[in-house]
Specification:
CATH class of the largest domain: Alpha Beta
Order of helices and strands: EEEEEEEEEEEEEEEEHEHHEHEHEHHH
CATH topology of the largest domain: Rossmann fold
Largest sheet: 10 strands, antiparallel
Number of strands: 20
Number of helices: 8
Helix content: 10-25%
Strand content: 25-35%
Shape: elongated
CATH architecture of the largest domain: 3-Layer(aba) Sandwich
Radius of gyration: 26 Å
Length: 455
């Protein structure tokens, strides 16, 4: 396994299985990518690594059953071969790739065995190429010198997805399963999660689809695959997550889109369904979002919630409220077509104009009654919190955008709005607060949400 990997992003589409002959489709939707007889559906680069001068096909009855190689020294060595219904990899470094290179959302599992001191990997979303392919990999390693063991995901500068104690012994079969959907990765070994719904913070810049690949890392390796299977998924399948689309501006995306990320962290801490979100680049107001075609995003996939946030100043005047209501209604119609639910993000008054909150709140509440939708009353919670503690800092230095503590309070409001649970007792550390500092904010958030339901 190479030390530095480039983790792939994910497209929110599904592509039906097609291709290899002899694919075996189980009732559960799993499809076998290895038929136990030959290498149909698999290929190798003609220059797998710098050690190899030539790749030699091994054929039987017109089918490829293995790949040998000629080293630069002239020596011939086996690399990949089918024996007794199993796929075995050994020899100098190489990668065996799936023919298909358009896998997007899926569960990908292998039943494998690695020898003592062997080092292999289960690549996915990877590019076909020579050397170590560009993509990412679930490690297969029980006792090699590399300390990163089976069940690990190696991402540049991220160590909390490493497993340092092997979950199996060398020389015994185990099952490793990878689930990729949206920008979220889960890995399990023998049914136990080793990477639990890890989200790629750089999903927008990483790979979006690719091949599967199996690795022989070095000459010490002998890896055996008994089963190789895939189940392709829709990005909107019943994956146990809440899927939400944010349509807003810098109030939503402040501090590098911290608000939706905090909602997800609160959800996981509260043992709720993980919160999977998309928050495209902001526009100044809902009218501009509509004119720029953002309604198409609503129909791009199945959402649970679409969260609408208007420019903070618009609700303060009749001239601003009119387009706010007009375009919110247009978006709401598209949201209903999708089968999702609308949530209005009640924004917060500027630091030096706290009394504006009454007007802001009324506008959002009036709109919610017309649309018959939920409101996340962040503005009401902020007003109550600042009234209770005059020294509390919720705004950034510009007096307008939210600071981390303010984002935490808003995230608590959204948690209560979406999950119907009080955020009280959840970790304050999510908002860089002590639990003692977080408790009153959590209570205020819950109270604000409950009060909004009763209006």
């Amino acid at each position: 396994m190479r030390n530095i990997l480039v983790l792939a992003a994910f497209l929110l589409i599904a592509i039906p299985i097609s291709g290899a002959a002899d694919e075996q489709i189980a009732d559960s939707g799993w499809i076998s990518l290895f038929n136990g007889k030959d290498l149909t559906g698999w290929k190798i680069h003609d220059k797998p690594s710098g050690f190899i001068e030539e790749v030699i096909k091994v054929e039987k009855a017109g089918k490829i059953v293995g790949y040998d190689c000629r080293l630069k020294s002239g020596k011939i060595m086996p690399m990949w071969r089918v024996e007794d219904g199993m796929l075995i990899g050994s020899g100098p470094p190489s990668h065996l790739f799936s023919e298909r290179g358009d896998f997007v959302n899926f569960q990908f599992r292998v039943e494998a065995m690695i020898n003592d001191k062997g080092n292999s990997g289960q690549y996915f979303r990877t590019e076909f190429g020579s050397g170590f392919p560009r993509g990412y990999e679930a490690q297969i390693n029980a006792t090699a010198d590399d300390p990163i063991r089976t069940g690990s995901l190696c991402v540049p500068n991220v160590k909390n997805v490493w497993v340092l104690t092997a979950p199996h012994k060398a020389g015994e079969f185990f099952v490793q399963e990878v689930t990729c959907i949206g920008d979220t990765i889960t890995i399990s070994v023998n049914g136990k999660k080793t990477v639990d719904a890890w989200r790629d913070p750089q999903a927008a810049t990483r790979y979006k689809k690719g091949h599967f690949a199996l690795q022989v890392h070095d000459r010490n390796t002998v890896v055996t695959f008994k089963k190789i299977e895939v189940k392709e998924l829709r990005a909107d399948s019943a994956d146990g997550m809440i899927h939400a689309l944010f349509i807003g501006n810098s109030m939503t995306r402040a501090r590098q889109v911290l608000l939706p990320r905090m909602i997800d962290e609160l959800a996981r801490a509260g043992n709720q369904r993980p919160f999977h979100y998309d928050a495209p680049d902001g526009r100044i107001n809902l009218e501009k979002h509509w004119e720029d075609g953002r309604a198409a995003l609503i129909q791009s996939r199945k959402w649970d919630f679409v969260i609408l946030q208007e420019q903070s100043g618009r609700p303060l005047s009749p001239e601003g409220r009119a387009p706010m209501f007009e375009y919110a209604k247009k978006f709401d119609a598209e949201i209903k077509k999708n089968g999702a639910k609308t949530i209005l993000y009640m924004t917060m008054a500027d630091k030096d104009r706290p009394d504006d909150q009454r007007v802001l709140s009324k506008a959002y509440l009036d709109l919610s009654k017309q649309l018959k939708c939920r409101v996340a009353p962040a503005g009401d919670a902020w007003y109550a919190a600042l009234k209770a503690d005059k020294k509390l800092v919720l705004h950034q230095s510009d007096g307008h955008h939210p600071e981390v503590t303010g984002i935490y309070l808003s995230a608590c409001v959204f948690y209560a709005t979406i999950y119907g649970k009080s955020p009280e007792g959840l970790p304050g550390s999510i908002g860089k607060l002590t639990d003692q500092e977080a408790r009153p904010l959590q209570a205020i958030a819950w109270k604000a949400v409950q009060a909004t339901k009763n209006r």
